[in-house]
Design a protein that fits this description.
By secondary structure, the protein is α/β, with parallel strands linked by helices. It has 28 helices and 32 strands.
């Protein structure tokens, strides 16, 4: 189950990657599960983009030196008044205190001194108002303002510090304190265009607090600072001494004095109002990158695109943060790209596992498991068995045997008309085809031609291995694929035992029933015309015109469908009933061709009839009945029929004397010698397809065919080449001066109606080059 699922994902790898990326995007973005990760990325960006403060704001530190200078705390407010006078006189633009003045001084005179200094500063001093949460997790705020006397000569700012998971990441533009709007201290110090009145913004912690210009409060008070240092600058006065306890956790810098939070927040606003755009832009980019990568079928290219996309997802927010105030979230996008990368790695790993268990050892060809997990067409299972496997393995060894299996697979793949071939075991191959048995039988005939010349293996000095095969079919669609293939392999073994090229699988019970009823079924098939004759055109290689046809018996059973001749003719012959079938085909052929001018018809003559059954008189009677000249009939006999004895030879002589042509069929596959050719009354020689189909690939086959044509012509015989499958082969035969040819390239066996349409076209004078 896992292998099927994994294979399905591998076959739809690009869709799988897109689904993983989309699901990750939806889950991560939709569940808002990225806050902590986004904070970590923001901290990383801040670390990489570390930059100095603008220098437009100066910090006056209430540091340890100052505490030691004044000896006590809180300092008298008159001291703050004097510092305000010093700073105002030095030309400071604004003077902001990050010091609590919400309660009155114990000595009222000190408040008076401070208030007078604030008045002299002409409202350039900013005092803080405080806001605090009632308790952790509460939204209720406690607020307080500076005393009324101090508030008259100053501006109010809020110094509220906002925590996110215990860390200060944001500040605000302004807050309402006791019904009065108070901009944040950062907003006052930013010197920016009009800012929003409310809302929060993310502090840019890439600005280094350590780069803010600072001096000691004690040095300012004592006049030890050059007054020009403060000219046209904002000044913030705040505590930095660790003993004063005003410290907060922030990204990167851990715990820092609270005054730096306001300073860095103001520096953030100086660069522009932060504009968060959320996660959708980067998420869209990430999905576009994944989709673009999935256009490629190559996993390594997709992975490279994912890696480049990951870099882009990290770099773009970084660049935007450096050059603009735009804040863009990228955690969901990064998770999306990373998920696609993990999915691609999973595909690679799973693919390696699937390949390992779906490839045959040694040859590394797809095996039966691979066949079962791949979609297969409905129809026939075809199995090919190597009959001399044991001998070749013993001769070659396992390494060379693996190469041989690969070469066999290559030839099978070429001959199966697009079906994919699988190696079932160390000597068997199989595939599925939607073609019917008749069409598959034609393919099998071509297979034998492909293997006839042997298979060369090895590097350099190649060794040609003679490989014999047997083929089995199983057309039972009610069983599963594995059982169907197993049955086809059994049928291939049966074909080898019976000495036929292929066999259809039948169960033992079905076989017994078939043999018991076959002869009667053949008789009924003849009577009901379920047995019919197909005609394959024979083409004159000089003119390209149709000269006649070969008659081939076909059986379309009302229940079993197409039944190949090899399936029933041997049984009919064994039971001595071939005479009726032969004369049925002969009469049908003569009747169909009698009125077709000079077109000739060739009919196969079983060797079992020669010398045993009267032939001359019945054949003459058929010719006379339909008025066909004897010279238009050709009787084809195999080479083995040529050795049937004196009676058979005499009968052939009598047929020839009648004017009937005699053809030696499948020449080259039997045991005939020159002496047989000399004594047979033959008029024609048919060269077997196993030689013809390999004349372009095999020099020896070219030589055999060429010399056979020359020999036949020297003996006064015409030559017909069987199995012509291409224009190149036909051209080669023409160059050898072969007389005629037949094959699928120029015409398949067809019923008489289709044959008549074909010759009607041919009669127009059109040269035949390809089958219609």
């Amino acid at each position: 189950m896992f292998i099927r699922f994994a294979d399905m994902l591998l076959r739809h790898a690009r869709a799988f990657l897109l689904i993983v990326a989309c699901l990750t995007a939806v889950v991560v973005a939709g569940l808002h599960a990225t806050k902590s990760q986004e904070s970590a990325l923001e901290a990383l960006r801040a670390t990489v983009l570390r930059r100095p403060a603008s220098g437009q704001t100066v910090l006056v530190e209430m540091d340890a030196k100052s505490i030691n200078y004044f000896k006590s705390w809180p300092w008298p407010r008159g001291i703050h008044g004097r510092v305000v006078d010093i700073l105002h006189a030095a030309g400071a633009r604004r003077i902001a205190f990050d010091v609590d003045f919400t309660s009155a001084a114990a000595d009222a005179r000190q408040d008076q001194l401070f208030a007078r200094a604030l008045a002299r500063a002409q409202h350039s001093v900013i005092l803080p108002g405080s806001l605090e949460l009632v308790s952790a997790g509460s939204t209720e705020m406690l607020s307080s303002l500076p005393g009324a006397r101090l508030a008259e000569g100053s501006k109010l700012a809020n110094i509220f510090v906002q925590f996110n998971d215990g860390i200060v990441r944001q500040s605000n533009y302004g807050k309402m304190i006791e019904g009065r709007y108070a901009p944040s201290l950062a907003a006052y110090l930013a010197d920016s265009a009009p800012l929003p009145r409310s809302g929060d913004f993310t502090i840019d912690w890439s600005i280094d607090p350590g780069t803010v210009p600072s001096v000691s409060y004690a040095d300012v008070f004592a006049g030890r600072i050059d007054p020009t240092f403060f000219r046209n600058r904002n000044v913030v006065i705040g505590a930095t001494a660790s003993t004063m306890g005003d410290r907060f956790a922030v990204p990167i810098y851990k715990n820092i004095p609270g005054v730096y939070i306001h300073l860095i927040a103001s520096e953030t606003l100086r660069r522009g109002i932060p504009r968060p755009v959320g996660q959708l832009p980067m998420l869209g980019l990430a999905l576009a990158i994944v989709a673009g990568a999935c256009l490629s079928r190559r996993g390594i290219f997709r992975m490279a695109m994912f890696a480049a996309g990951g870099v882009a997802v990290l770099a773009i927010p970084l660049l935007l943060r450096w050059f603009t105030p735009i804040i863009i979230e990228s955690t969901a996008a990064l998770a999306t790209v990373f998920a696609a990368m993990l999915a691609q790695c999973w595909l690679w790993t799973t693919g390696a596992v699937v390949r390992r268990i779906t490839l045959a050892s040694g040859s590394h060809l797809p095996n039966l498991l691979a066949m079962t997990i791949q979609p297969q067409p409905r129809g026939l299972s075809v199995a090919v068995r190597l009959r001399n496997h044991i001998e070749t393995t013993a001769l070659l060894g396992h390494a060379a045997q693996a190469e041989l299996l690969r070469r066999v697979h290559e030839r099978l793949q070429l001959a199966t008309e697009g079906a994919f071939v699988y190696q079932i075991d160390e000597r068997s191959f199989a595939w599925r085809t939607a073609a019917d048995i008749e069409r598959t039988a034609d393919v099998i005939e071509g297979l034998y031609a492909v293997f006839a010349a042997g298979i060369p293996i090895g590097q350099g000095r190649k060794q040609t291995i003679d490989t014999t095969i047997s083929v089995g079919l199983c057309d039972d669609e009610s069983i599963d694929l594995e059982e169907s293939v197993a049955n086809a392999m059994l049928a291939a073994d049966q074909a080898a035992e019976q000495g036929v090229r292929w066999a259809r699988y039948v169960s033992r019970e079905e076989e017994d029933d078939w043999r018991l009823t076959l002869l009667g079924e053949v008789d009924r098939a003849i009577e009901n015309q379920h047995l019919w004759v197909a005609y394959q055109p024979k083409i004159d290689l000089r003119t390209g015109r149709i000269t006649g046809a070969e008659a081939l018996v076909r059986w379309t059973h009302p229940e079993r469908g197409f039944i190949a001749p090899d399936r029933f003719i041997p049984i009919v012959e064994e039971n001595g009933r071939i005479d009726r079938l032969t004369f049925y085909v002969l009469e049908q052929s003569v009747r169909d061709f009698a009125g077709l001018g000079d077109l000739k018809i060739a009919v196969n003559l079983s060797m079992r009839l020669l010398g045993r059954t009267p032939l001359v008189a019945p054949i003459k009677e058929i010719l006379d009945r339909y008025g066909m000249k004897p010279h238009r009939l050709t009787l084809e006999i195999t080479e083995s029929a040529a050795v049937t004895g004196a009676d058979g030879l005499a009968e052939l002589e009598a047929l020839r004397a009648l004017g009937i042509a005699i053809s030696i069929d499948d020449y080259g596959t039997g045991q005939s010698t020159l002496s047989y050719l000399q004594k047979l009354p033959a008029t024609e020689l048919k060269i077997d397809r196993s030689f013809v189909q390999l004349i372009l690939a095999s020099r020896s086959d070219w030589t055999v065919v060429d010399s056979t044509i020359k020999l036949a012509h020297a003996l006064g015989l015409s030559v017909v080449a069987e199995g012509v499958e291409s224009q190149e082969i036909m051209d080669a035969l023409r160059s050898m001066e072969c007389d005629e040819q037949q094959g699928y390239f120029t015409g398949r066996p067809v019923p008489i109606a289709k044959f008549l349409k074909r010759i009607a076209t041919d009669d127009t004078g059109t040269t035949v080059e390809r089958a219609a």
